Amino acid sequence: MPQVDSPAINLDITQWVGGPSSNISNELGKPILIIVFQVNCPGCFINGIPETLEIRDIYKDSPLLTWGLATAFEDFHLNNLENLNKLVNSGEVVGKTLDALNAKGLVNNNRLDYDIPFPIALDRVVPYQPSDYSLEANKFIKKDFPQFDTFPEKNKKVILNQVTDYLKQKKYEAKTFEDYQLKGTPTTLLVDKRGILRGKWFGSGYGLENEVGKLLAY
Fold first, then answer.
1. Which residues have C-beta within 8 Å of that of residue 51, sequence separation ≥ 6?
2. Whole-angstrom Cα distance, residue 79 to residue 31?
3. What is the distance between the alpha carbons of residues 114 and 96, in angstroms, rounded to a whole number?
4. What is the phi/psi pair of residue 82, to 5°?
5. What's the first-to-final CA gap in the chain, in angstroms?
6. Residue 208: pLDDT above 80?
7. Which has the closest alpha carbon to 53: 102, 100, 120, 129?
8. Which run of H or of E encompasses 169?
9. Using 50, 70 and 90 to split pLDDT, how confident is the model at 36?
10. Which residues pair with 111 in a beta bridge?
11. Rounded Cα gap, residues 20 and 13, in angstroms
12. pTM for the whole thing?
C-alpha cells in the first residue's frame, strides 16, 4: 500500500473511458489530481466531482493533470463499464445517484447538469477469493479502526465477527481501491511531479485547492 509521501503505484485498470490511455509512471514531470468515485455514489456527484472540476478550472493554466478513477466496492451490478460509458458519453446517471440528484434538481432527463471533461479510468474488478478470511478481516479492521487493539475484548469480537461475515458475502474487489487501501468514495489522490503520493482524502471539503496550490508552487 502506498503511503502518503512515498512513491505512488500505477493504477490497476481495465481501460480508459473518455480520454487517452496513460498512468502515473508515464506522466512524471506533471502533478496529477485523481478523483476516485463510484457511478452509484450520490456524494461523489454532489460533492466530490464538482470540487474536482472547480480545482481543475482554477489551475487550468498549470501543468496539473486531472483524472477520474471509477471504482467499485459495492453495488457491482451498477458500478460497471456499461454505466460508466453512459456517464461519460451522455452524462446519464443511474441508481442512488439518479435518485439523489433528481431530488436536488441536478439532473435533466436522467443526465447531469454539468460535464465531466477529464479522462476516466475503470478500476480492474476481480473475484474476491481470499485464502484466509480471518487474516483479511483483521487487515480490514486495522484500516478502518486504527485503535482497534485498545477496544474491550467483547467489542473486538463483535466487530471481527461482523467484518468476517461481510467479507464472506463479498464476491468482487477493485484492485486499485484495495492497493491504495481506500476507505470509500469519493476519495482524492494527489501525486506530485516526481510520482510521490502527497495526499489521500476520503470525502470532500479538506481545503484541496490550497493543497494543489502548494504542490504546484514547488
1. 188, 204, 205, 208
2. 27
3. 18
4. -55, -50
5. 25
6. yes
7. 120
8. helix 153-169
9. very high
10. 92, 108
11. 13
12. 0.89
Residue 41 contacts residue 181 (beta carbons within 8 Å): no
DSSP symbols for 112-145: ESS---S-EEEEPEEE---S-HHHHHHHHHHHH-
Would the pLDDT of 140 be above 90?
Answer: no
State which amino acid sits at residue 176: T
Instruction: Write the single-letter amino acid at 60.
Output: K
Q: What backbone phi and psi angles, to 5 degrees, belong to 206?
A: -105, 20
In Å, how far from its chain's centre is CA 50? 14
**What kind and span of H or E run contains 174?**
strand 172-174
Provide the pLDDT for residue 1.
64
- Here the cell at position 211 is 493543497
Name residue, grid cell 439518479. 98
Instruction: Give the Å distances, CA to CA, from 48 to 60, 128, 140, 176, 187.
Output: 18, 27, 24, 18, 8
CB 7 within 8 A of CB 197: yes
3-state class (DSSP) for residue 28: coil
| Cβ–Cβ < 8 Å for 206, 17 | no
For residue 117, which of 91, 148, 146 has the smallest C-alpha distance?
91
- Give CA separation, 37 vs 53, 70, 87, 138, in Å: 14, 5, 12, 25
Instruction: Give the dihedral of Cα atoms 193, 199, 201, 204; nearest 10 deg.
Output: -60
What confidence category does residue 166 fall into, taking pLDDT thresholds of 50, 70 and 90? confident
What is the rounded distance in angstroms from the CA atom of residue 23 to the CA atom of residue 16? 10
CB atoms within 10 A of CB 80: 17
